[in-house]
Each structure stands twice: as C-alpha cells, then as structure tokens.
DNA sequence: CTGAAAGCGCTTACAG
DNA sequence: CTGAAAGCGCTTACAG
C-alpha cells in the first residue's frame, strides 16, 4: 500500500509538497503539481482517510439516522442522500434507529459521539435534547429532515397545511362523513409528523363545522404500512351504519391498505368511498390514488446540500433561505376520490 | 474532547496502561483497570477511531454495496445487516451502486479502495473480476450475498432449484399453459439471480415436456417492481387466445403487478389464472400470494456474522459449513394458485 | 504488571 | 514555491 512518502520520493519532492500538490491547498508550482500527480497515479496512491482525519478533524463522512429503510418515504430519502453524498466525495454511515431502548442510546453515545462523522442528518425521527446535545457538543452539526430535533435546524414540508389541503379536497367534493386514519403515535408525540397531519385534518374539519365520522372516534391510528392500513380500514369500515364516505389516510401505504380493505368489504372506491393518501408513493399512480405528493429523494439531496454548505464544501448555489422550510408538496387528484354519494 | 492522555493522568497511569485497560488487550492489574475505566467514564472519554485505525489498520466499519434500497428484498437485507453490525460495534457504510457507469467505478476505485472499511458485503450485484480485485488486493475480504463476485465467497439461496420448485407447484396443479415473468436481465447476465430463476423454470418445464405459453415466447422480462409486473402482465394477458392459466413471477413485486393487471383485465385469480411469486414479501400474506419465501433480513445478519468471523470477531458459534450455501427457502401456498381450469 | 518510545500516514504552520 | 519538523491520538513491541 503506497504512502505519500512513496509518491514524494518518486516525484522527487518532500512529503509536504506532495501533500500540497495532491490536496490543492497551498502553493505548488504547476510543473511540480503535475509531476506529483503523475507519480501518485502511477503507483495507485490513495491517501489514508484515517491519517488525514486525524490531523484535519474531518472525516468526509456523514451519518444518517433513520427509523426505517424499508418504507417508501425513507428509502427514497436514503437513496437521494446517498447519491448526493457520493458525488460530493462523502461516505454515508447508516444508523437504522430502533424506536427507542438501549440500542438507540448506543447509537448516540457510542457511535455518533465518536468522531467518525462530520455531521448528522436525522430523518423522520424525533430526537430529545440530550440526543441533539451529544452530537452538537462534539462540534458536529445536525439537520432534522422531517421529525424534530430541539435546537437543530429543520428541513420539512408543512405537514399540517398539507393535511389540511387533503381534508379540504374531500370537503370540497361535498363529503361530510369523513374519517382520518392517523399514523401511529399521532396522539402521543405532540410535535411529530403524524400529530401535525392529524392537526391539519382537524383544523379543516372544525373550520367546516364537521366532526370526524367512524369507529370509534373518526380518528384511528394505524401503523404506517399497508397491512396497518388494512386492519385499521377493516375496523373503520366494518360497521355499515357509521361508515364514512371519505377517508384521509396519513400515508399512501395506509391508503393502499384501506383500498384493499374496501375491496374485501365490497365497498366501491370511489363511488361509495373516497380515499386520499399522503406522500406520492411510487405506486400511487398505478392504483389511481389521489394524494398529497412530496419528494423524498429530492429532500434527501437537499439535506445533503445543506449540510455540505455548513461544512464549507462550497455549494454556493444553494440558497438556504429559498431551499428552506417548508419543502414542496402538491395535491394530485386521481381516481380514488370523487363527489360524495347523495 | 478528552484524549487518552487525560484519562491516564486522571487515573495516575501511563497512556500505554490506559490503552491496555480500556481495550482489554494485554495485562493490567484488575484494580488498575477499574481505576482507568472510572476515569474514562468520568470525563466522557471515547477513543478516536481514526487514531486507532491508523495504527491497527482496522476501522470497525463494513461497506455494504447494494443496488437498491427501496425494494423489499434489499431493504430487508440492509436492515438485518445494519442491526447485526451495530450490535458487533461496527459501522455500516452504504454504497448504493448504480447499475453501471462512472459512478460505479468511483465507488470501487475511490471509496472502497481507501482503507475505510474492513470488509465488503456485496448484496445482489454482479461484480466483475476487476472490481473484486480492487477490494481483495487491499487485503479486504468480500462476501457476495446473492449476486456474483468471481473468486469471492458467496452466500445465496439456490435460485435455480427454488424456481424449479415454484414451477413444479404449478405443474402439479395440472397447469400446462404456464408463462414466466422473468426479472429484467435474465437473458443477458448469464449467472445472475434472474437468469438462475429462469433456468429453474425451464428445467422443470422441459422435464414435464411443457413449453412456456404466452406473448410472445412465454418468457417475458419485467422490471422487478410492481409497475414492472403490471405492464408485463398486461402484455402477457392481453391476448385472450394465447393466455396462460398460470404464471411464475420472478419476484413477489412482479406478482403483485400481475395480480393488478389481471384485475384490470377482469381475469379472476386463481380460478382463471394462478400466480406464484418469489421472495416472501411482507405483503404476500395480505394478498394471498403463493410464493417461495426467502429470509433476507436473516440473510443480512448471516452475512455480517460470516464477515465478523473472518475478521476474527469471535463469532465462534457460527458454523459456516452449516450456515453456508444454499440459504433457506420455503414454498408457501396461499390463495393465488389453484388447480388448472378444465 | 507497567512505562517510555516509536510509529501509523497524513497535514500544517514555520522558515527559508 | 519548497522542505524539515512537529503533531493529530492512538497502539504495540520492548524493557524492566
């Protein structure tokens, strides 16, 4: 494994000069630089990142903390972030954060507290102050993408407004018997994404003088997955008497599950039941699902660019003020919603 | 940021002793060890992994090369690997490998060639010799999980046999008009997973004296996604005359797409069309999909354990001979397959 | 069982 | 514009 000394010797310069030539920092005669680069090329020299990190304090590595890999939204964010990081010459270290418990503490206290990453992007998780502190106290910036992290900058869509828009869509179609399938945790974690979506739903319902309809309260929490939506849907739609004519699902995956439940129960969509989802899942088009689109892959990229900016990686073009909160969403109407049955 | 010197001073020992006490390597008096550990604890000392790596040559980091994050199989593998790595005290660096091109070269020549990882797990990708070489020539072991990597150890299910089993299931149900929706690339990359599944299909068809049925050849390549299966399904099932009575889809995601296509075309499943998938997708049960299950999360864990064994991390319990090829699969019969219509 | 010293492979002031 | 030297924070022979 060639070291910088080998390059220097071959190029007939000192290690200092070789280092400057290769890194582009400091003065080096053009001709010398060429000679050094050639030498490096010739022997296949690649600088040891560990040695470099040790002296610069920079690792060229960003940690991504994420609660799931296997849900559409998160997978997209991860792919977007990975691509952006790679093209900036950074590694991505993945921390798949379990919801809580000792594993979670270990990620913060052991893994992230070491100096292995230059920054942390926390995707869709709600961090507490201590967790944020563990990271920032070591001088590493942290960015929350969705989710919350007290004291840390945040990049997010306006979940509350967007959920309001979804609800409004149903109301405008003349629905009055509307239910909401909230994401699990909407009732507990007060400022969570799920809670904001539920709040947005309730905003518009109240404004329209409506009350959620369904079993038991018109707002049912569902695991944010297709099976979660399916069983919540069965529960919601199982009682013919109290059945809503429209449902706002907190995610497209929940919505797909409700569609499946409706199919099982013989409830026609959209004629007997309108369904609107949230996310812009890649299957939404195929299933004709009306939804609030957001753009997670783009969000992942944006998060990386923001962090690169912080780290002084000269992404001069990124206008943080413009790129900032709230991120883009869009109502896309398809065939799963229609006017209320009369 | 406290360094080991601070710990040593506080404990009243030398840095050498502090290092030994903390790492557990070499002799240290029990009483001394306690004192050092206490000191470390007190000032919140965490060893710099960069400095340690520089001298030991070990990074406690494993690179995972994976073509997709957002497909069920890959997401599961990733989660399984991540969990196992974390509990072994290792970081996971994610390389989301684009199918080819300069990005891909960059991952091998720049990212993986540096000494940032102790080993590489390549999931579901087909590496060429040069790529394997870049890694092994730097003294780093590489493990192929599914996919292929010439010269590198491989952990995989027996795709060919398992695909044969799926086909056999349809044949035993009395089907003679059987089609196969292959994964894209089955025809080109000779030893790929997709090709093996197609080969397994053809093995059994020939053995039964059957010929694939459908449009145009009875074997259609589909993108291994739900939309991919949908459009291939539409193509396959669109001509009422040449329609098969059973389909073996190379993945559950393709199978879901075919189910959707059948629904669109008004073809009843399973009475008019039996469908069997491959993978054991988390939604298979909900959709009543008969499939060949495999266990990707477990596979990810197993891959990590194998690599840990190589790295001497004392996973003594793992019996590589037993854990080895081929990994477990199982035929799970649900409601998407039934006897051939007569 | 413990400590002094060397060294891992870089980068960065500092002189020149 | 270039080089000698120090130092980043560890670990590991080697003596004792």
Automatic annotation (TrEMBL), chains A, B:
Residues 6-56 form the HTH lacI-type domain. Coiled coil: none annotated. The keyword Transmembrane helix does not apply. InterPro entries: HTH_LacI, LacI/GalR-like_sensor, Lambda_DNA-bd_dom_sf, Peripla_BP_I. GO terms for molecular function: DNA-binding transcription factor activity; transcription cis-regulatory region binding. The keyword Transcription regulation applies. Keywords: DNA-binding, Transcription, Transcription regulation. This is LacI family transcriptional regulator. It comes from Agromyces tardus.
